[in-house]
Write a structure and sequence with these properties.
Elements: H1 3-11, H2 20-26, E1 31-32, E2 39-41, H3 44-51, E3 56-57, H4 65-71, H5 93-102, H6 118-130, E4 137-139, H7 140-145, H8 147-157, H9 164-175, H10 187-214, H11 220-226, H12 236-267, H13 269-277, H14 282-292, E5 299-304, E6 308-310, E7 313-315, E8 321-323, H15 325-328, H16 363-380, E9 381-382, E10 385-386, E11 406-408, E12 411-412
Parallel strand pairs: 2-8
Antiparallel strand pairs: 1-2, 3-5, 4-11, 5-8, 6-7, 9-12, 10-11
Length: 418
């Protein structure tokens, strides 16, 4: 198959339920490209090397104009009111903004922030599962996997939970800019919709930031506004751009992590029973879910700052590179028997959160959310079972997960005493 064939198949929603045979075929040519398209990198060590290579840029402004135009890239820089988030920047700008954002979030400055959220996370999970009482089926996405991380990120940032329908709609629109298949739609219309959603979300968060500037609260927005770390403070525009990133990234990938994890457990009832009997299994189990069914399948729109030789192929400066993380996670040269789900897997250095300087900012929180969510679902649901397999998937090829996950059960066990 050619690049065009692979890309069409990978981005085709009809293949979303099981893209892994496509990835296995793709790995036969670790770096693949046809005329006019991006370079697809699909093997573990090549992806890992590029993620740690300072010559690889995450800033789409460094793409060759022809490559950017061919891919219909929707750049954050298209919104003149906001700078790019640190996710789309290179050092030194990336490092400064990420350090400031990390200051109130985790190590080394606030090392216990995530750990101290454990009790609150458990209470949110308990309340959501309590709401299953009197029912014999739920949509695990709409009834659990979505509201849990949304509630968490709202409380963490200080965003009113009642405003969730607003930013849910904005987030859904903005995330189409990550979907390669969306490039086939009306590009101009899509860019206008994404820009409008980003402007509206930016205005909403800008007003919230001004409220916190006048009246600080016990939340991350207030800490970012009033903190004085070694790198100083963000400008107002940088604050808004960072808040947009954290609000969206803080829940979208975790929704997929929980949904993919529960789907995998329901397909592996022996592992589900082990987790029911011993919640400590949740720690390695979440790592294996991140390898086996990663929420983020692709990292598109990377580009080299100079010519790069990889796996016998020279990728020229400015070319588009797509890193197929989910393929690297199933590379048999890195993971023995990679298509087997094994929570006891040793040396599980997966690419589920990426790697290098852009490794997922919220990984510690996402891990803890996944561990608590899956352990409690396994413990409290009596005889849980899939009602539709495969379930319907979201169209997005980058952020892969079920759109709905119908699950039946015989009852709900009591919550643990606090």
């Amino acid at each position: 198959m050619t690049y065009g064939t692979y890309l069409r198949k990978i981005t085709d929603p009809a293949n979303r339920a099981d893209p892994y045979p496509l990835y296995a075929e793709l790995r036969k040519t670790p770096v693949l490209r046809d005329e006019g398209g991006p370079y697809l990198v699909s093997t573990y060590w090549e992806i890992h090397g590029l993620l740690h290579d300072p010559r690889l840029s995450s800033d789409p402004r460094n793409l060759d104009p022809d490559a950017a135009a061919a891919l219909a890239v929707t750049e954050e820089a298209d919104d003149p009111t906001l700078p790019p988030s640190f996710l789309r920047l290179d050092p030194p700008e990336h490092d400064r903004l990420r350090r400031i954002a990390t200051y109130p979030f985790g190590p080394p400055h606030t090392p216990r922030r995530i750990h101290d959220m454990r009790g609150e996370l458990a209470r949110i999970v308990t309340d959501l599962i309590d709401d299953f009482e009197g029912r014999d089926r739920v949509d695990l996405v709409d009834d659990f996997a979505y509201p849990f991380p949304v509630t968490v990120i709202c409380r963490l940032l200080g965003v009113p939970r009642a405003d969730e329908p607003l930013f849910h709609a904005w987030a859904d629109t903005m995330l189409t800019s990550l979907d390669p298949a969306a490039a086939e739609a009306d590009v101009a219309q899509r860019r206008r919709a994404v820009r409008q959603a980003r402007v509206e979300l930016g205005m909403y968060l800008s007003e919230l930031i001004e409220d916190r500037r006048r009246a600080p609260a016990e939340d991350m927005l207030s800490s970012l506004i009033h903190g004085d770390g070694p790198d100083g403070r963000m400008s107002h525009a940088e604050l808004v751009s960072t808040a947009v990133l954290l609000l969206i990234a803080g829940h979208e990938t975790t929704v997929n992590l929980i949904a993919n994890g529960m789907l995998t457990l329901l397909r592996h009832q022996d592992v589900l029973k082990r987790l029911h009997d011993d919640s400590r299994l949740a720690v390695p189990l979440v790592e294996e879910v991140l390898r086996y069914e990663p929420p983020v399948q692709l990292l598109p729109h990377r580009t080299p700052l100079t010519d790069i030789d990889i796996a016998g192929v020279t990728i020229p400066k400015g070319a588009a590179i797509w890193l197929v993380l989910a393929s690297g996670n199933r590379d048999p040269k890195r993971f023995p028997d990679p298509d087997r789900f094994d929570p006891d897997r040793k040396d599980n250095q997966h690419l589920g959160f990426g790697s290098g300087i852009h490794i997922c900012y919220g990984a510690p929180l996402a891990r803890l959310e996944g561990q608590i969510a899956l352990a409690e679902l396994a413990r409290r649901l009596e005889n849980p079972r899939l009602l539709e397999d495969p379930p319907p998937y979201r169209h997005n090829a980058v952020l892969r997960g079920p759109r709905h996950l119908p699950v039946g059960f015989d009852g709900v066990r009591p919550a643990r005493e606090p």
